[in-house]
Amino acid sequence: MINLVKNLSVYNRRTKSSVIRELLKLTNQPGIISLAGGLPAPDLFPVETMREVVNSVLDKYSAAALQYGATEGTPELKAELVKLLKETEGLDLKPENILITTASQQGLDLIGKTFIDASDPILVELPSYIGGLQAFKSYGAEMIGVKCDDDGLLLENLELKLQKLLEEEEHYKFIYVVPDFQNPSGVTMSQKRREQLIKMSEKYDVLIIEDSPYRQIRFEGKAPDMLYKLDKSSNVISVFTFSKIFVPGLRLGFMIGHEEIIKKLSKMKQSLDLCTSPFNQLIAAEFLKGGYLPSHIEKINASYKSKKDAMLNALQEYMPKVEGISWTKPEGGLFLWLRLPEHIDTEVLFYEAIKKQVAFVIGSAFYCDKTGNNTMRLNFSYPSEEQIDEGIKRLALVVKKFL
Prior knowledge:
By secondary structure, the chain is of the alpha/beta class. It has helices at 4-7, 10-14, 19-24, 47-65, 75-89, 103-115, 130-138, 155-167, 191-203, 227-230, 259-273, 278-289, 293-318, 346-355, 385-402, and strands spanning 33-34, 98-101, 121-126, 142-149, 152-153, 174-177, 207-211, 236-241, 253-256, 326-327, 335-339, 358-359, 361-362, 375-379.
Protein backbone atom coordinates (compact mmCIF):
# COMPACT_ATOMS: atom_id res chain seq x y z
CA MET A 1 0.00 0.00 0.00
CA ILE A 2 1.18 3.57 -0.70
CA ASN A 3 2.43 5.74 2.14
CA LEU A 4 -0.94 7.28 2.93
CA VAL A 5 0.34 9.86 5.40
CA LYS A 6 2.88 11.16 2.88
CA ASN A 7 0.15 11.62 0.31
CA LEU A 8 -2.45 13.32 2.50
CA SER A 9 -3.21 16.99 1.87
CA VAL A 10 -2.34 19.71 4.37
CA TYR A 11 -6.10 20.21 4.82
CA ASN A 12 -6.54 16.55 5.81
CA ARG A 13 -3.57 16.59 8.16
CA ARG A 14 -4.89 19.69 9.93
CA THR A 15 -8.37 18.20 10.38
CA LYS A 16 -8.58 16.31 13.67
CA SER A 17 -11.31 13.97 14.85
CA SER A 18 -13.81 15.61 17.16
CA VAL A 19 -13.00 14.93 20.81
CA ILE A 20 -16.75 14.82 21.41
CA ARG A 21 -17.32 12.19 18.71
CA GLU A 22 -14.52 10.03 20.07
CA LEU A 23 -15.77 10.23 23.66
CA LEU A 24 -19.36 9.62 22.62
CA LYS A 25 -18.33 6.20 21.35
CA LEU A 26 -17.92 5.26 25.01
CA THR A 27 -21.43 6.46 25.86
CA ASN A 28 -23.18 3.91 23.66
CA GLN A 29 -22.73 1.16 26.21
CA PRO A 30 -25.97 -0.28 27.65
CA GLY A 31 -27.18 1.42 30.80
CA ILE A 32 -25.22 4.66 30.40
CA ILE A 33 -27.16 7.87 30.91
CA SER A 34 -25.78 10.34 28.40
CA LEU A 35 -25.81 14.03 29.27
CA ALA A 36 -23.17 14.45 26.58
CA GLY A 37 -24.68 14.83 23.11
CA GLY A 38 -26.40 17.85 21.61
CA LEU A 39 -29.30 15.93 20.15
CA PRO A 40 -32.89 17.13 19.94
CA ALA A 41 -35.47 14.92 21.67
CA PRO A 42 -36.70 12.44 19.01
CA ASP A 43 -40.15 12.13 20.63
CA LEU A 44 -40.73 15.78 19.58
CA PHE A 45 -40.14 15.19 15.87
CA PRO A 46 -43.30 16.17 13.90
CA VAL A 47 -43.64 12.77 12.21
CA GLU A 48 -47.28 12.94 11.11
CA THR A 49 -46.98 16.51 9.87
CA MET A 50 -43.84 15.53 7.98
CA ARG A 51 -45.73 12.67 6.32
CA GLU A 52 -48.35 15.12 5.05
CA VAL A 53 -45.74 17.66 3.99
CA VAL A 54 -43.66 15.11 2.07
CA ASN A 55 -46.73 13.89 0.19
CA SER A 56 -47.66 17.49 -0.58
CA VAL A 57 -44.17 18.20 -1.94
CA LEU A 58 -44.30 15.15 -4.20
CA ASP A 59 -47.76 16.13 -5.43
CA LYS A 60 -46.89 19.78 -6.12
CA TYR A 61 -43.16 19.84 -6.90
CA SER A 62 -42.13 16.31 -7.90
CA ALA A 63 -39.94 17.32 -10.86
CA ALA A 64 -38.18 20.17 -9.00
CA ALA A 65 -37.91 18.17 -5.76
CA LEU A 66 -36.16 15.21 -7.38
CA GLN A 67 -33.92 17.20 -9.74
CA TYR A 68 -30.72 19.19 -9.22
CA GLY A 69 -31.28 22.71 -7.92
CA ALA A 70 -29.60 26.10 -7.77
CA THR A 71 -26.48 26.37 -5.61
CA GLU A 72 -27.95 29.35 -3.78
CA GLY A 73 -31.11 27.46 -2.80
CA THR A 74 -34.66 26.92 -4.02
CA PRO A 75 -36.74 30.10 -4.52
CA GLU A 76 -39.59 28.62 -2.47
CA LEU A 77 -37.51 28.15 0.68
CA LYS A 78 -35.71 31.46 0.33
CA ALA A 79 -39.05 33.27 -0.01
CA GLU A 80 -40.34 31.62 3.18
CA LEU A 81 -37.16 32.53 5.04
CA VAL A 82 -37.47 36.18 3.99
CA LYS A 83 -40.97 36.19 5.52
CA LEU A 84 -39.90 34.28 8.64
CA LEU A 85 -36.98 36.59 9.44
CA LYS A 86 -39.13 39.66 8.85
CA GLU A 87 -41.79 38.37 11.26
CA THR A 88 -39.48 37.02 13.96
CA GLU A 89 -36.43 39.31 13.81
CA GLY A 90 -37.58 42.44 11.96
CA LEU A 91 -35.00 41.89 9.20
CA ASP A 92 -35.57 43.27 5.71
CA LEU A 93 -33.89 40.74 3.45
CA LYS A 94 -33.95 39.83 -0.21
CA PRO A 95 -33.45 36.30 -1.56
CA GLU A 96 -29.98 37.44 -2.66
CA ASN A 97 -29.04 37.86 1.02
CA ILE A 98 -29.61 34.14 1.69
CA LEU A 99 -27.58 31.02 0.92
CA ILE A 100 -29.08 27.61 1.72
CA THR A 101 -26.52 25.17 3.13
CA THR A 102 -26.30 21.50 3.99
CA ALA A 103 -26.82 22.27 7.69
CA SER A 104 -24.96 25.02 9.52
CA GLN A 105 -21.73 23.02 9.72
CA GLN A 106 -21.34 23.46 5.98
CA GLY A 107 -21.88 27.18 6.52
CA LEU A 108 -18.96 27.29 8.96
CA ASP A 109 -16.80 25.31 6.55
CA LEU A 110 -17.70 27.72 3.72
CA ILE A 111 -16.65 30.65 5.90
CA GLY A 112 -13.29 29.00 6.50
CA LYS A 113 -12.92 28.15 2.82
CA THR A 114 -13.82 31.68 1.73
CA PHE A 115 -11.92 33.83 4.24
CA ILE A 116 -9.07 31.93 5.88
CA ASP A 117 -5.51 31.58 4.62
CA ALA A 118 -3.06 29.51 6.62
CA SER A 119 -1.91 31.31 9.80
CA ASP A 120 -4.62 34.01 9.60
CA PRO A 121 -5.69 35.06 13.11
CA ILE A 122 -9.36 34.75 14.02
CA LEU A 123 -10.91 35.55 17.40
CA VAL A 124 -13.11 33.01 19.17
CA GLU A 125 -14.84 32.74 22.52
CA LEU A 126 -13.35 30.87 25.48
CA PRO A 127 -15.10 28.41 25.41
CA SER A 128 -16.40 28.11 21.84
CA TYR A 129 -18.37 25.66 19.68
CA ILE A 130 -16.04 22.80 18.79
CA GLY A 131 -17.51 22.38 15.28
CA GLY A 132 -16.53 25.94 14.46
CA LEU A 133 -13.05 25.46 15.90
CA GLN A 134 -12.60 22.31 13.82
CA ALA A 135 -13.76 23.95 10.60
CA PHE A 136 -11.50 26.97 11.00
CA LYS A 137 -8.50 24.95 12.19
CA SER A 138 -8.67 22.77 9.09
CA TYR A 139 -7.98 25.86 6.95
CA GLY A 140 -4.96 26.76 9.07
CA ALA A 141 -6.43 29.56 11.18
CA GLU A 142 -4.56 30.73 14.25
CA MET A 143 -7.31 30.91 16.85
CA ILE A 144 -7.04 33.57 19.53
CA GLY A 145 -9.27 33.03 22.54
CA VAL A 146 -11.27 35.83 24.13
CA LYS A 147 -12.44 35.51 27.73
CA CYS A 148 -16.18 35.37 28.50
CA ASP A 149 -18.45 35.63 31.50
CA ASP A 150 -22.16 34.98 31.98
CA ASP A 151 -23.00 37.94 29.69
CA GLY A 152 -20.83 36.74 26.82
CA LEU A 153 -17.58 38.17 25.42
CA LEU A 154 -15.49 40.37 27.68
CA LEU A 155 -15.05 43.24 25.27
CA GLU A 156 -12.08 44.77 27.08
CA ASN A 157 -10.21 41.51 26.51
CA LEU A 158 -11.35 41.44 22.87
CA GLU A 159 -10.14 44.98 22.25
CA LEU A 160 -6.75 44.26 23.80
CA LYS A 161 -6.28 41.39 21.37
CA LEU A 162 -7.55 43.30 18.34
CA GLN A 163 -5.29 46.25 19.18
CA LYS A 164 -2.28 43.95 19.55
CA LEU A 165 -3.01 42.31 16.18
CA LEU A 166 -3.40 45.71 14.57
CA GLU A 167 -0.08 46.94 15.96
CA GLU A 168 1.64 43.77 14.75
CA GLU A 169 0.03 44.24 11.30
CA GLU A 170 -1.52 40.79 11.51
CA HIS A 171 -4.18 40.09 8.90
CA TYR A 172 -6.98 39.10 11.28
CA LYS A 173 -10.16 37.92 9.55
CA PHE A 174 -13.18 37.66 11.83
CA ILE A 175 -14.67 37.28 15.29
CA TYR A 176 -16.67 34.07 15.75
CA VAL A 177 -19.46 34.12 18.36
CA VAL A 178 -22.48 32.04 19.37
CA PRO A 179 -24.42 34.87 21.06
CA ASP A 180 -27.64 33.06 22.00
CA PHE A 181 -27.53 30.13 24.50
CA GLN A 182 -23.98 29.47 23.55
CA ASN A 183 -22.71 26.00 22.85
CA PRO A 184 -21.20 24.91 25.20
CA SER A 185 -21.89 27.33 28.08
CA GLY A 186 -25.58 28.17 27.54
CA VAL A 187 -24.95 31.90 28.19
CA THR A 188 -26.45 34.71 26.10
CA MET A 189 -24.59 37.88 25.13
CA SER A 190 -26.27 40.94 26.63
CA GLN A 191 -27.84 43.68 24.51
CA LYS A 192 -25.26 46.21 25.67
CA ARG A 193 -22.34 43.99 24.71
CA ARG A 194 -23.89 43.28 21.31
CA GLU A 195 -24.09 46.99 20.60
CA GLN A 196 -20.50 47.48 21.76
CA LEU A 197 -19.31 44.52 19.67
CA ILE A 198 -20.83 46.04 16.53
CA LYS A 199 -19.05 49.33 17.22
CA MET A 200 -15.80 47.43 17.72
CA SER A 201 -16.21 45.58 14.42
CA GLU A 202 -16.51 48.96 12.68
CA LYS A 203 -13.56 50.46 14.54
CA TYR A 204 -11.26 47.55 13.71
CA ASP A 205 -12.80 46.70 10.31
CA VAL A 206 -13.40 43.07 11.21
CA LEU A 207 -16.17 40.66 10.23
CA ILE A 208 -18.41 39.05 12.84
CA ILE A 209 -19.65 35.50 12.33
CA GLU A 210 -22.91 35.13 14.27
CA ASP A 211 -23.63 31.42 14.72
CA SER A 212 -27.29 31.12 15.72
CA PRO A 213 -28.54 27.53 16.02
CA TYR A 214 -30.50 27.99 19.26
CA ARG A 215 -31.94 31.51 19.13
CA GLN A 216 -35.58 30.40 18.78
CA ILE A 217 -35.24 27.91 21.62
CA ARG A 218 -35.94 30.54 24.26
CA PHE A 219 -38.27 29.68 27.13
CA GLU A 220 -37.56 32.53 29.54
CA GLY A 221 -36.61 36.20 29.39
CA LYS A 222 -36.46 38.66 26.50
CA ALA A 223 -34.31 38.11 23.43
CA PRO A 224 -31.63 40.73 22.69
CA ASP A 225 -31.38 41.93 19.08
CA MET A 226 -29.52 39.82 16.57
CA LEU A 227 -26.07 41.15 15.75
CA TYR A 228 -27.15 41.16 12.10
CA LYS A 229 -29.98 43.54 12.91
CA LEU A 230 -27.71 45.92 14.84
CA ASP A 231 -25.09 45.98 12.09
CA LYS A 232 -25.21 48.92 9.65
CA SER A 233 -21.90 48.24 7.87
CA SER A 234 -22.51 44.75 6.39
CA ASN A 235 -19.92 43.38 8.81
CA VAL A 236 -22.04 40.45 10.05
CA ILE A 237 -22.65 37.03 8.53
CA SER A 238 -25.29 34.99 10.38
CA VAL A 239 -25.45 31.20 10.26
CA PHE A 240 -28.62 29.22 11.06
CA THR A 241 -29.75 25.60 11.12
CA PHE A 242 -33.06 23.74 11.02
CA SER A 243 -31.54 20.90 13.06
CA LYS A 244 -32.55 22.22 16.48
CA ILE A 245 -35.91 23.83 15.61
CA PHE A 246 -37.21 21.32 13.06
CA VAL A 247 -35.40 18.02 12.38
CA PRO A 248 -31.64 17.37 12.05
CA GLY A 249 -32.13 14.55 9.54
CA LEU A 250 -32.93 17.01 6.73
CA ARG A 251 -29.42 18.51 7.10
CA LEU A 252 -30.63 21.99 6.27
CA GLY A 253 -29.21 25.36 7.25
CA PHE A 254 -28.83 28.82 5.78
CA MET A 255 -26.65 31.91 5.93
CA ILE A 256 -27.53 35.57 5.61
CA GLY A 257 -25.21 38.40 4.65
CA HIS A 258 -24.49 41.15 2.16
CA GLU A 259 -25.22 40.12 -1.45
CA GLU A 260 -21.55 40.25 -2.44
CA ILE A 261 -20.55 38.05 0.50
CA ILE A 262 -23.29 35.54 -0.35
CA LYS A 263 -21.99 35.41 -3.94
CA LYS A 264 -18.48 34.58 -2.73
CA LEU A 265 -19.77 31.89 -0.35
CA SER A 266 -21.99 30.42 -3.08
CA LYS A 267 -19.01 30.10 -5.41
CA MET A 268 -17.22 28.04 -2.78
CA LYS A 269 -20.30 25.88 -2.24
CA GLN A 270 -20.38 24.90 -5.92
CA SER A 271 -17.21 22.86 -5.45
CA LEU A 272 -18.57 21.12 -2.35
CA ASP A 273 -21.96 19.70 -3.31
CA LEU A 274 -23.35 21.70 -6.29
CA CYS A 275 -26.55 22.26 -4.32
CA THR A 276 -28.28 21.35 -1.08
CA SER A 277 -31.01 18.71 -1.56
CA PRO A 278 -33.96 20.42 -3.36
CA PHE A 279 -36.28 17.75 -1.94
CA ASN A 280 -35.34 18.62 1.63
CA GLN A 281 -35.51 22.34 0.92
CA LEU A 282 -39.03 22.02 -0.46
CA ILE A 283 -40.08 19.98 2.58
CA ALA A 284 -38.85 22.81 4.82
CA ALA A 285 -40.52 25.42 2.60
CA GLU A 286 -43.86 23.60 2.75
CA PHE A 287 -43.53 23.18 6.52
CA LEU A 288 -42.95 26.93 6.91
CA LYS A 289 -45.68 27.83 4.42
CA GLY A 290 -48.17 25.64 6.29
CA GLY A 291 -47.55 27.62 9.48
CA TYR A 292 -46.36 24.57 11.43
CA LEU A 293 -43.10 26.01 12.78
CA PRO A 294 -44.40 28.31 15.58
CA SER A 295 -46.44 25.59 17.29
CA HIS A 296 -43.59 23.10 16.87
CA ILE A 297 -41.09 25.50 18.50
CA GLU A 298 -43.59 26.15 21.29
CA LYS A 299 -43.77 22.40 21.93
CA ILE A 300 -39.98 22.09 21.94
CA ASN A 301 -39.57 25.01 24.32
CA ALA A 302 -42.10 23.67 26.81
CA SER A 303 -40.34 20.30 26.92
CA TYR A 304 -36.81 21.70 27.15
CA LYS A 305 -37.74 24.20 29.85
CA SER A 306 -39.09 21.39 32.00
CA LYS A 307 -35.92 19.36 31.43
CA LYS A 308 -33.66 22.33 32.11
CA ASP A 309 -35.50 22.96 35.38
CA ALA A 310 -35.11 19.28 36.27
CA MET A 311 -31.34 19.52 35.71
CA LEU A 312 -31.00 22.70 37.76
CA ASN A 313 -33.01 21.14 40.58
CA ALA A 314 -30.88 17.99 40.51
CA LEU A 315 -27.64 19.98 40.54
CA GLN A 316 -28.89 21.98 43.50
CA GLU A 317 -29.90 18.82 45.37
CA TYR A 318 -26.98 16.49 44.66
CA MET A 319 -23.85 18.53 43.90
CA PRO A 320 -21.49 19.19 46.81
CA LYS A 321 -21.89 22.66 48.32
CA VAL A 322 -18.24 23.69 48.15
CA GLU A 323 -16.38 26.68 46.79
CA GLY A 324 -15.45 26.33 43.11
CA ILE A 325 -18.55 24.43 42.01
CA SER A 326 -21.03 26.47 39.98
CA TRP A 327 -23.19 26.18 36.89
CA THR A 328 -24.91 28.43 34.38
CA LYS A 329 -28.69 28.96 34.38
CA PRO A 330 -29.62 29.33 30.70
CA GLU A 331 -32.89 30.89 29.53
CA GLY A 332 -32.99 28.59 26.51
CA GLY A 333 -30.96 26.31 24.27
CA LEU A 334 -29.81 22.75 24.95
CA PHE A 335 -26.90 23.01 27.38
CA LEU A 336 -25.60 24.25 30.68
CA TRP A 337 -22.02 24.54 31.89
CA LEU A 338 -20.62 23.08 35.09
CA ARG A 339 -17.45 24.49 36.66
CA LEU A 340 -15.50 22.49 39.23
CA PRO A 341 -12.56 23.45 41.48
CA GLU A 342 -9.45 24.09 39.40
CA HIS A 343 -7.55 21.05 40.64
CA ILE A 344 -10.13 18.69 39.11
CA ASP A 345 -9.43 17.47 35.56
CA THR A 346 -12.74 16.53 33.95
CA GLU A 347 -11.01 14.34 31.35
CA VAL A 348 -9.83 12.07 34.16
CA LEU A 349 -13.20 12.42 35.86
CA PHE A 350 -14.95 11.41 32.62
CA TYR A 351 -13.63 7.85 32.74
CA GLU A 352 -14.71 7.49 36.37
CA ALA A 353 -18.16 8.80 35.40
CA ILE A 354 -18.41 6.17 32.65
CA LYS A 355 -17.82 3.53 35.33
CA LYS A 356 -20.82 5.02 37.16
CA GLN A 357 -22.71 4.89 33.84
CA VAL A 358 -23.14 8.60 33.25
CA ALA A 359 -21.52 10.69 30.50
CA PHE A 360 -20.82 14.37 29.81
CA VAL A 361 -18.50 16.32 27.48
CA ILE A 362 -15.16 17.53 28.82
CA GLY A 363 -14.84 21.31 28.81
CA SER A 364 -11.28 21.52 27.46
CA ALA A 365 -12.56 20.33 24.06
CA PHE A 366 -14.19 23.76 23.63
CA TYR A 367 -11.09 25.83 24.41
CA CYS A 368 -8.72 26.76 21.60
CA ASP A 369 -5.96 27.37 24.18
CA LYS A 370 -6.31 23.95 25.86
CA THR A 371 -7.55 25.41 29.15
CA GLY A 372 -10.94 24.74 30.80
CA ASN A 373 -9.81 21.41 32.24
CA ASN A 374 -12.10 21.85 35.25
CA THR A 375 -15.30 22.35 33.23
CA MET A 376 -17.90 20.21 31.50
CA ARG A 377 -20.93 20.58 29.23
CA LEU A 378 -24.24 18.98 30.20
CA ASN A 379 -27.11 18.46 27.77
CA PHE A 380 -30.74 18.48 28.92
CA SER A 381 -32.64 18.26 25.61
CA TYR A 382 -32.17 14.55 24.85
CA PRO A 383 -32.49 12.58 28.14
CA SER A 384 -35.76 12.20 30.00
CA GLU A 385 -36.33 14.06 33.27
CA GLU A 386 -35.93 10.79 35.15
CA GLN A 387 -32.60 10.15 33.41
CA ILE A 388 -31.48 13.71 34.15
CA ASP A 389 -32.17 13.29 37.85
CA GLU A 390 -30.44 9.93 38.08
CA GLY A 391 -27.57 11.06 35.84
CA ILE A 392 -26.80 14.14 37.95
CA LYS A 393 -27.01 12.02 41.10
CA ARG A 394 -24.38 9.63 39.69
CA LEU A 395 -22.22 12.50 38.47
CA ALA A 396 -22.33 14.18 41.87
CA LEU A 397 -21.01 11.00 43.51
CA VAL A 398 -18.03 11.04 41.14
CA VAL A 399 -17.38 14.74 41.81
CA LYS A 400 -17.46 14.08 45.58
CA LYS A 401 -14.87 11.34 45.12
CA PHE A 402 -12.54 13.75 43.28
CA LEU A 403 -12.98 16.45 45.90
